[in-house]
Amino acid sequence: MDETDKRIIFQLMKNARTPLSEISEKIGISAQALNYRVSRLQESGIIRKFSLHVNPQIKGLISGFAAFRNSGYESDRIVSKFKCLEEITIYEFNGKDQKQIYEFINDAAGKLGEPFMRYIPEPRQLNMAFGKMDLEIIEILKVNPRLPVLNIAEKLNAKPSVVRKRLAMMEKNRVINAVAEIDLTKTDSTILSIISSSVEKLFPYFGENIIFYISDKGNGIIVGYAENLKKARGTIEKLRETDPSTQVMVVYEYEFN
After folding, report:
1. Pick the CATH number of 132-172 from 1.20.5, 1.10.10, 1.10.8, 3.30.1330
2. Model confidence, pTM
């Protein structure tokens, strides 16, 4: 794996729906070379799969997070999971209200022990109205997160321009996010999971390298990418200078369901 592969991986982790033509232009290689590299990364198992993370508010649900000092909990209630080198696993759950989220967390606690962190963010305002087509697009993308707009439009018997517009709105409002799941044991890239009460002050230290984040009233979680351990160490030092109470963990495995 070389630096070009790392740049490809980051672009696909940040937004797996980024057109390959756009990625090839960003990193300065031909579309043909990019296609070859992506195929090779998939065949080698470095890119394990592509997943779709969906904001639960579109179905009237909320999300909640809990961090445990153990792993091994499996449930269809888990939306995402981040395993860290510090022997900590962060789980995301969706539920109809805070009470149900706490029930899910308590069920996990019965198997893993008490969590050292519980976080249920306040639902944020979504600046768009949802219709039947949006939900249909999401269901299609759950099967194939990178399906081209033309193919989605064909399945819906809709105009590609309409589908493209709805997709753009959902991505802009962080309703959906297509993510590449990477086998980090086969790279020297680093993913950091950050828990902070001053999360918005930490954004500048990641720049464009934020894969996933959620926040409200200053509290929040950031999952960000560093090209190597040296850069990760520098980022961690800056984060702790800004917010000494920041909890930083190195992710070695993650998945979205």
Report:
1. 1.10.10
2. 0.86
